[in-house]
From TrEMBL:
Protein name per its UniProtKB record: Large ribosomal subunit protein uL22
GO molecular function: rRNA binding; structural constituent of ribosome
Family: Belongs to the universal ribosomal protein uL22 family.
Record's function text: This protein binds specifically to 23S rRNA; its binding is stimulated by other ribosomal proteins, e.g., L4, L17, and L20. It is important during the early stages of 50S assembly. It makes multiple contacts with different domains of the 23S rRNA in the assembled 50S subunit and ribosome.
InterPro entries according to UniProt: Ribosomal_uL22 (IPR001063), Ribosomal_uL22_bac/chlpt-type (IPR005727), Ribosomal_uL22_bac/org-type (IPR047867), Ribosomal_uL22_CS (IPR018260), Ribosomal_uL22_sf (IPR036394)
Gene name per UniProt: rplV
Organism, as annotated: Frisingicoccus caecimuris
Region Disordered: start-end pairs: 1-22
Amino acid sequence: MAKGHRSQIKRERNANKDTRPSAKLSYARVSVQKACFVLDAIRGKDVKTALAILAYNPRYASTVIEKLLKSAIANAENNNGMNPDNLFIEECYADKGPTMKRIRPRAQGRAYRIEKRTSHITIVLNER
């Protein structure tokens, strides 16, 4: 049996909610491995340093993550009333998304599979 009324269960669930500002990008067209190279470079840094690192990083994933980081900063500023100068990246990770399967024609009637991988990228900020 349930341990309480539906509204009580919802109230308890919402009380345990994470209040740190974050931003999530689902179905990003970049593999987890390639996204993690960029995320490892900015993890634990303050947001100004992280934006500078992303601006000069030549990888494609850095442009996607830079846009996501700016979104997380805007969320912190507008929703939580935090000062952007005091923010740092507490967590950042990439989870595996669905893989699109494509076929590449090869010699003698064969077909090779091409896997176009996607990822779900999350950035969580906090104040110093």
